[in-house]
Amino acid sequence: MMTQSNEIERVAQTFKALSDPTRLRIVTMLRGSKAPLCVTAIASRLGVTQPAVSQHLRVLRAAGIVSSMRAGRRVHYSVDVEALRAHGRLFSDALNLK
Fold first, then answer.
1. pLDDT tens digits, residue range 73-96?
2. Rounded to two decimals, what is the model's pTM?
3. Distance CA 37, CA 45 (A)
4. What is the CATH number of domain 4-94?
5. How far apart are CA 36 and CA 34, in angstroms?
6. 19-23: long-range contacts, CB 8 A cutoff, minimum separation 24
């Protein structure tokens, strides 16, 4: 069972991951995409370098916001919608917003 303190830590980690405007743009882009996107496509669409996108995706993956799957030599990323819903529930529960 998760304690309130653990829930608050998870909510804080989610907010930290989404606090950067570029990461928020990446999540919004992936959420609106019909198919998972690779780092090259994300970098091109955002006008950001590939290494920067990779670092942002690392943070988003660590927070459980995006998931990845390998397709040949490339890794494609998508938003983990169920994880976002779970983060939303944690946020609501942590702040007693029921």
1. 999 999 998 888 887 887 777 677
2. 0.83
3. 10
4. 1.10.10.10
5. 7
6. 20/56, 20/59, 22/46, 22/48, 22/52, 22/56, 23/56, 23/59, 23/60
pLDDT top residue among 98 and 64? 64
What residue ranges do the domains of the chain occupy? 4-94
Residue 46 in contact with residue 10, Cβ under 8 Å? no
Give me the pLDDT at residue 31, please: 93
Please work out, in degrees rounded to the nearest 5, the angle formed at the alpha carbon of residue 13 by the alpha carbons of 8 and 14: 100
* Beta strand extents in 5-60 (DSSP E only): 37-38
List all residues 6 or more positions away from 57 whose beta carbon is below 8 Å from its beta carbon: 26, 39, 42, 66, 68, 77
> Is 18:28 a contact under the CB 8 Å cutoff?
no
Locate tokens 């779970």: which residue? Answer: 86
